[in-house]
Protein backbone atom coordinates (compact mmCIF):
# COMPACT_ATOMS: atom_id res chain seq x y z
CA UNK A 1 0.00 0.00 0.00
CA UNK A 2 2.85 2.39 0.89
CA UNK A 3 4.51 1.66 -2.46
CA UNK A 4 1.29 2.42 -4.34
CA UNK A 5 0.82 5.66 -2.40
CA UNK A 6 4.44 6.69 -3.07
CA UNK A 7 4.08 6.03 -6.79
CA UNK A 8 0.81 7.96 -6.90
CA UNK A 9 2.38 10.95 -5.13
CA UNK A 10 5.38 10.83 -7.49
CA UNK A 11 3.10 11.00 -10.55
CA UNK A 12 1.10 13.86 -9.04
CA UNK A 13 4.33 15.75 -8.31
CA UNK A 14 5.64 15.28 -11.85
CA UNK A 15 2.28 16.37 -13.29
CA UNK A 16 2.31 19.53 -11.18
CA UNK A 17 5.89 20.35 -12.20
CA UNK A 18 5.02 19.90 -15.90
CA UNK A 19 1.92 22.06 -15.52
CA UNK A 20 3.95 24.77 -13.77
CA UNK A 21 6.59 24.69 -16.52
CA UNK A 22 4.02 24.88 -19.31
CA UNK A 23 2.17 27.78 -17.69
CA UNK A 24 5.44 29.66 -17.32
CA UNK A 25 6.31 29.44 -21.02
CA UNK A 26 6.13 32.62 -23.04
CA UNK A 27 4.21 32.61 -26.33
CA UNK A 28 7.53 32.94 -28.19
CA UNK A 29 9.00 29.95 -26.35
CA UNK A 30 5.93 27.84 -27.13
CA UNK A 31 6.32 28.60 -30.83
CA UNK A 32 10.01 27.64 -30.67
CA UNK A 33 9.21 24.31 -29.04
CA UNK A 34 6.43 23.54 -31.53
CA UNK A 35 8.79 24.21 -34.43
CA UNK A 36 11.61 22.17 -32.92
CA UNK A 37 9.27 19.21 -32.43
CA UNK A 38 8.44 19.29 -36.16
CA UNK A 39 12.14 19.64 -37.06
CA UNK A 40 12.90 16.59 -34.95
CA UNK A 41 10.16 14.53 -36.60
CA UNK A 42 11.41 15.47 -40.07
CA UNK A 43 15.21 15.42 -39.66
CA UNK A 44 16.29 13.57 -36.51
CA UNK A 45 18.62 10.71 -37.45
CA UNK A 46 18.22 11.53 -41.14
CA UNK A 47 20.20 14.68 -42.03
CA UNK A 48 23.73 15.70 -41.07
CA UNK A 49 23.90 18.86 -38.98
CA UNK A 50 20.62 18.22 -37.20
CA UNK A 51 22.22 17.74 -33.76
CA UNK A 52 24.22 20.96 -34.13
CA UNK A 53 21.01 22.82 -34.99
CA UNK A 54 19.30 21.90 -31.72
CA UNK A 55 20.93 24.69 -29.73
CA UNK A 56 20.20 27.32 -32.38
CA UNK A 57 16.82 29.01 -31.88
CA UNK A 58 14.79 29.68 -35.01
CA UNK A 59 14.22 33.33 -35.87
CA UNK A 60 10.72 34.57 -36.64
CA UNK A 61 12.08 35.79 -39.97
CA UNK A 62 15.47 36.54 -41.53
CA UNK A 63 14.26 39.71 -43.24
CA UNK A 64 11.43 41.97 -42.20
CA UNK A 65 8.44 42.85 -44.33
CA UNK A 66 9.66 46.42 -44.88
CA UNK A 67 12.92 45.00 -46.32
CA UNK A 68 10.90 43.83 -49.32
CA UNK A 69 10.49 45.98 -52.41
CA UNK A 70 7.21 47.98 -52.32
CA UNK A 71 6.24 46.49 -55.71
CA UNK A 72 6.47 42.99 -54.26
CA UNK A 73 4.43 43.99 -51.23
CA UNK A 74 1.78 45.40 -53.55
CA UNK A 75 1.66 42.19 -55.59
CA UNK A 76 1.12 40.00 -52.53
CA UNK A 77 -1.08 42.46 -50.66
CA UNK A 78 -3.77 40.86 -48.55
CA UNK A 79 -1.54 37.91 -47.66
CA UNK A 80 -0.01 37.70 -44.21
CA UNK A 81 3.78 37.45 -44.62
CA UNK A 82 5.19 34.95 -42.13
CA UNK A 83 8.83 34.42 -43.09
CA UNK A 84 11.41 35.87 -45.48
CA UNK A 85 14.92 34.58 -46.08
CA UNK A 86 17.65 35.10 -48.71
CA UNK A 87 18.25 32.03 -50.89
CA UNK A 88 20.24 30.97 -53.93
CA UNK A 89 18.01 29.67 -56.71
CA UNK A 90 19.43 27.34 -59.36
CA UNK A 91 17.96 27.48 -62.87
CA UNK A 92 16.32 24.22 -63.86
CA UNK A 93 18.19 23.92 -67.15
CA UNK A 94 21.66 25.49 -66.95
CA UNK A 95 21.75 25.47 -63.13
CA UNK A 96 23.02 29.04 -62.98
CA UNK A 97 22.98 30.37 -59.41
CA UNK A 98 20.85 33.45 -58.81
CA UNK A 99 20.26 35.46 -55.64
CA UNK A 100 16.61 35.46 -54.65
CA UNK A 101 14.31 35.82 -51.66
CA UNK A 102 11.95 33.14 -50.43
CA UNK A 103 8.79 34.73 -49.05
CA UNK A 104 6.38 32.53 -47.12
CA UNK A 105 2.87 33.85 -46.51
CA UNK A 106 -0.06 32.19 -44.82
CA UNK A 107 -1.14 30.58 -48.09
CA UNK A 108 1.75 30.57 -50.59
CA UNK A 109 5.51 30.50 -51.14
CA UNK A 110 7.03 33.12 -53.43
CA UNK A 111 10.44 33.19 -55.12
CA UNK A 112 11.27 36.88 -55.47
CA UNK A 113 13.84 38.76 -57.52
CA UNK A 114 14.12 42.30 -56.12
CA UNK A 115 10.85 43.81 -57.47
CA UNK A 116 9.57 40.77 -59.38
CA UNK A 117 7.77 37.62 -58.33
CA UNK A 118 9.46 34.84 -60.29
CA UNK A 119 7.31 31.98 -59.03
CA UNK A 120 4.32 31.49 -56.76
CA UNK A 121 3.50 28.14 -55.18
CA UNK A 122 0.20 27.80 -53.39
CA UNK A 123 0.53 25.43 -50.45
CA UNK A 124 -2.62 23.59 -51.50
CA UNK A 125 -0.83 22.50 -54.71
CA UNK A 126 2.50 21.59 -53.10
CA UNK A 127 3.52 18.06 -54.09
CA UNK A 128 6.61 17.61 -51.93
CA UNK A 129 9.73 19.02 -50.28
CA UNK A 130 13.07 17.23 -50.69
CA UNK A 131 16.45 17.64 -49.01
CA UNK A 132 19.53 15.40 -48.88
CA UNK A 133 20.86 13.50 -45.89
CA UNK A 134 24.16 15.42 -46.10
CA UNK A 135 25.06 18.80 -44.59
CA UNK A 136 24.24 20.88 -47.68
CA UNK A 137 21.48 23.50 -47.65
CA UNK A 138 19.70 22.35 -50.81
CA UNK A 139 15.90 22.07 -50.78
CA UNK A 140 13.71 21.19 -53.76
CA UNK A 141 10.09 22.33 -53.72
CA UNK A 142 8.05 20.03 -55.93
CA UNK A 143 5.13 21.58 -57.78
CA UNK A 144 2.33 20.15 -59.95
CA UNK A 145 2.62 19.74 -63.70
CA UNK A 146 0.45 22.53 -65.04
CA UNK A 147 0.73 25.67 -67.12
CA UNK A 148 1.04 27.88 -64.03
CA UNK A 149 4.34 26.35 -62.96
CA UNK A 150 7.70 26.39 -64.75
CA UNK A 151 8.93 23.35 -62.83
CA UNK A 152 10.24 22.38 -59.43
CA UNK A 153 12.14 25.01 -57.43
CA UNK A 154 15.78 24.31 -56.50
CA UNK A 155 17.02 26.48 -53.64
CA UNK A 156 20.05 26.68 -51.40
CA UNK A 157 19.29 27.96 -47.89
CA UNK A 158 21.77 28.95 -45.20
CA UNK A 159 19.31 27.98 -42.47
CA UNK A 160 17.95 24.78 -43.99
CA UNK A 161 16.31 23.31 -40.88
CA UNK A 162 14.57 26.57 -40.05
CA UNK A 163 13.40 27.24 -43.60
CA UNK A 164 12.05 23.74 -44.28
CA UNK A 165 10.31 23.63 -40.89
CA UNK A 166 8.61 26.98 -41.50
CA UNK A 167 7.55 25.90 -44.99
CA UNK A 168 6.08 22.52 -44.07
CA UNK A 169 4.30 23.95 -40.99
CA UNK A 170 2.72 26.82 -42.92
CA UNK A 171 1.71 24.43 -45.69
CA UNK A 172 0.57 21.87 -43.10
CA UNK A 173 2.40 19.22 -45.13
CA UNK A 174 5.03 17.83 -42.78
CA UNK A 175 4.48 14.34 -44.18
CA UNK A 176 5.57 15.48 -47.66
CA UNK A 177 9.15 16.26 -46.58
CA UNK A 178 11.62 13.63 -47.80
CA UNK A 179 15.28 13.32 -46.83
CA UNK A 180 16.97 11.48 -49.70
CA UNK A 181 20.31 9.74 -50.14
CA UNK A 182 22.47 9.78 -53.26
CA UNK A 183 20.24 11.56 -55.75
CA UNK A 184 16.79 12.89 -56.50
CA UNK A 185 14.70 13.65 -59.55
CA UNK A 186 13.09 17.02 -60.17
CA UNK A 187 10.74 18.33 -62.82
CA UNK A 188 12.24 20.79 -65.29
CA UNK A 189 9.00 21.57 -67.10
CA UNK A 190 7.08 20.38 -70.17
CA UNK A 191 7.23 16.79 -68.97
CA UNK A 192 11.03 16.78 -68.66
CA UNK A 193 12.99 15.70 -65.60
CA UNK A 194 16.48 16.37 -64.27
CA UNK A 195 18.73 14.61 -61.77
CA UNK A 196 20.54 16.04 -58.77
CA UNK A 197 23.42 14.06 -57.27
CA UNK A 198 24.65 14.48 -53.69
CA UNK A 199 28.22 13.55 -52.82
CA UNK A 200 30.97 14.25 -50.26
CA UNK A 201 34.12 16.27 -51.04
CA UNK A 202 36.86 18.45 -49.51
CA UNK A 203 34.86 21.66 -49.98
CA UNK A 204 31.20 22.51 -50.60
CA UNK A 205 30.21 23.34 -54.17
CA UNK A 206 27.28 23.07 -56.56
CA UNK A 207 27.92 22.60 -60.27
CA UNK A 208 26.70 21.05 -63.51
CA UNK A 209 28.79 17.96 -64.25
CA UNK A 210 29.81 16.51 -67.62
CA UNK A 211 26.67 14.39 -67.83
CA UNK A 212 24.44 17.44 -67.37
CA UNK A 213 23.44 16.57 -63.81
CA UNK A 214 23.45 19.07 -60.94
CA UNK A 215 26.09 17.87 -58.48
CA UNK A 216 25.97 19.02 -54.87
CA UNK A 217 29.17 18.44 -52.87
Automatic annotation (TrEMBL):
InterPro entries: Myosin_TH1 (IPR010926)
Pfam families to which the protein is assigned, alphabetical: Myosin_TH1 (PF06017)
GO molecular function: cytoskeletal motor activity
GO CC, alphabetical: myosin complex
UniProt domain TH1: residue ranges: 47-217
Superkingdom, natural source: Eukaryota
Protein name stated in the entry: MYO1H protein
Organism: Chloropsis cyanopogon
This protein's encoding gene: Myo1h
Amino acid sequence: FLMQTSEMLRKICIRNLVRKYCRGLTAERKVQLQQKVVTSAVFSGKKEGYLQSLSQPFLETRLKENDLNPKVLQLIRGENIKYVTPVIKYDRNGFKARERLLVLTQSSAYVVEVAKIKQKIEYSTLKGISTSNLSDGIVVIHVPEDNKQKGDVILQCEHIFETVTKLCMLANKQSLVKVVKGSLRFRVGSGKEGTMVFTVGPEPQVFKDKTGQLTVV
